[in-house]
């Protein structure tokens, strides 16, 4: 879930507990200070994306595609050189 329209520089308190088949825990107080600084957040997002399987699949596909393009270019260059001479 998310909380919207929070004020920057203000500390909010959430009271959280877990409930499962074994029962319910005691409430735990969790303070959160809202900030407008997204620099650290962007690093976390970037790290999460780059470590994901989906990103690795895309990256591997791009690497494979680049290798194929380079091989084709080299092969075509040899053909062009041979035809030109």
UniProtKB/TrEMBL annotation:
Pfam families: Ig_J_second (PF24489). Residues 1-45 form the Tip attachment protein J second Ig-like domain. InterPro entries: GpJ_Ig_second. It comes from the Bacteria. This is Tip attachment protein J second Ig-like domain-containing protein. It comes from Salmonella enterica subsp. enterica serovar Bareilly.
